[in-house]
Amino acid sequence: MTKGTTMLRPQDTSTRETKRLDGLWSFELDGDSAGRDAGWFRGPLPSPRDMAVPASFNDLTADAAVRDYVGDIWYQRTVRVPRGWTDQRVVLHFESATHRATVWVDDHEVVSHEGGYTPFEADVTEFVTPGEEVRITALVNNTLSFQSIPPGVIEDTAAGKAQRYWHDFFNFAGIHRSVWLAATPQARIENLTVVTGFSGDVGSVDFAVETADSDGLEVRTVLRDAAGREVATGSGATGSLRVDDVHLWAPGHGYLYDLEVQLVDDTGVVLDTYHQSVGIRTVEVRGTEFLINGDPFYFKGFGMHEDHSTIGKAHSPAHLVQDFELLDWIGANSFRTSHYPYSEDVLDYADRHGIVIIDETAAVGLNMGLGGGIFGGQGYTTFSPDTINETTREVHAQAIRELIARDKNHPSVVLWSIANEPESDTEGAEDYFRPLFDVAREADPSRPVGFVNVMLAPHGSCRVSQFADVLMLNRYYGWYVNTGDLAGAEIAWTEELTGWASEGKPIIITEYGADTLAGNHSLTPQPWSEEYQVDYLDMNHRVFDACEAVVGEHVWNFADFATTSGIMRVDGNKKGAFTRDRKPKAAAFALRRRWRKDA
Ligand code: GCB
């Protein structure tokens, strides 16, 4: 199926070339799933409309049937293969297709991939001719089931089938990130892993390179500093580079070296070359401390979403820059990729700007007890042979592997979150999660692993946190419980947190927040007002500041975001410090005062 764990992101180098396929594609919904048997990939789609790539398709038409569509979705375009690509290996690379896709090049099926937030690619060399056009067709499917990550279920309603799910954000779908044609030499670099360290002012970059069609060729590595000066060289596919007078990557200081990997023949000709930015830093959990470069780190920031009006969950460079500017303005040093892997451009940007990331899989909503009917269909048992089962766990394991394979070399990523708010107080949960922590640790022994605990599994009842290196807690004292009663909330919250602190692990509060309608004010602290949101955050901060084991606070959420509709959500979730169009609420200024020493 997919070769999801051994691929490098397309790159232009002196031996490689890329062509981005973003723009308008032909698009057609296929509610009867008839297109595959009818061979829609064999020619132009029967009655297509235009669709933007990258974009969620949901909000781009004026048609309710499109917005809430669930099922097969066809995307198609033609592309002329660059005429200079003779004798090259050509791959077709999707950064993501939500939630799964099968792809054809002309009449040839080339790849299928499960999971909406990680990349996949196919070697299409034998199906393309440099200088000629090819037709690319992607059959995307956005259905969530008990065997998908995230899970969902299709229910029959009077109006037809409807998608239910247990997570609190709209099920945007489509092709959310760039699609590429990319050329590499046949003899090529296929995969690269770096792990960094330092002792005193000497840094180390351990590397492991995988190559293909490379008999008789030599791997060479060159490390250059940010000014382009060569600081270390190596030969061989694995090794360790010594970096004197090391310049560390650190929170707020995104210093990057460039590691160039070369594949060289015996006459010294460089047949392939690939560049990897490297931030030299260490991450360690010691007692209740979270250490970056040996220094205690306190996470300040948000759980975020890839979510914007019009484009939905698509990546856009303009929004990327704006969101990071706002993070800087407010004094955030970190965020969590709640609740799925974000665009690789986001991680690159965080690397360069010294922003710290908790990197999360799309395993959200593995909890059928949550929300009492708010977030979708109820009446299910979370872990059972008919619901979340061993097949789901295999899909989940693959999602963990693909996340780590994709993001392992980013210095910004310091902690893996393998799930958000799953059921975690049952034997079924314990059995389900135990092996998944092993999967993460095997894929990356260099970073701590955790999951995000839900309020329904408070201290003393959670059976999964025993496997985690760091405790991540989402708590809504003063919102979902003790609503409007901040004094009572403070007492209850302090009591629970004191229990968790006795575990001797660092605690990050990965969510705390109050829905707030921008512009709604009140003299007395009324829920939904901007004043209440400020008071609510203040109360939480008093609780955190009194607890030594708390090493971080991530407000839920950075910005208001789209959700499924229901009696709990008015035009989406309103817990943002910023509105959906990034205007600050009063809380944004309050957070800025707390987080920025100079504000
Ligand atoms: C949570 C979830 C998050 C929701 C949030 C809320 O615990 O992790 O996805 O959006 O609560 O606002 O209810």
Strand order of the largest sheet: 25-26-27-28-29-30-31-32
| Average of the residue pLDDT scores | 96
* Biggest sheet layout: 8 strands, parallel, barrel
- Tally the beta strands: 32
CATH class group of the largest domain: Alpha Beta
Q: What percentage of the residues does DSSP assign to strands (E)?
A: 25-35%
Structural class: alpha+beta
**Percent helix among the residues?**
10-25%
Give the helix tally.
9
The value of Rg in angstroms is 24 Å
CATH-defined architecture of the largest domain: Alpha-Beta Barrel
Small-molecule binders here are:
(2S,3S,4S,5R)-3,4,5-trihydroxy-6-oxo-oxane-2-carboxylic acid
What would you call the shape? globular
| CATH fold-level name of the largest domain | TIM Barrel
How far apart, in Å, are the first and last alpha carbons?
52 Å
Unreliable stretches (pLDDT < 50, length at least 5) are none
Number of domains: 3
Question: Could you give me the name of the CATH homologous superfamily of the largest domain?
Answer: Glycosidases
Overview of this protein structure:
The protein starts with 16 loop residues before the first strand and ends with a helix. An 8-stranded parallel barrel has the order 25-26-27-28-29-30-31-32, surrounded by 4 helices. A hairpin with a 5-residue loop joins β20 (257-264) and β21 (270-278). The longest helix is centred in the middle third of the chain and has 18 residues, at 390-407. α8 (530-545) packs parallel to α9 (586-595). Helices cover 18% and strands 32% of the residues. The chain is an alpha+beta fold. The protein has 3 domains: 17-184, Galactose-binding domain-like (Jelly Rolls); 188-281, Immunoglobulin-like; 297-595, Glycosidases (TIM Barrel), CATH 3.20.20. The structure holds (2S,3S,4S,5R)-3,4,5-trihydroxy-6-oxo-oxane-2-carboxylic acid.
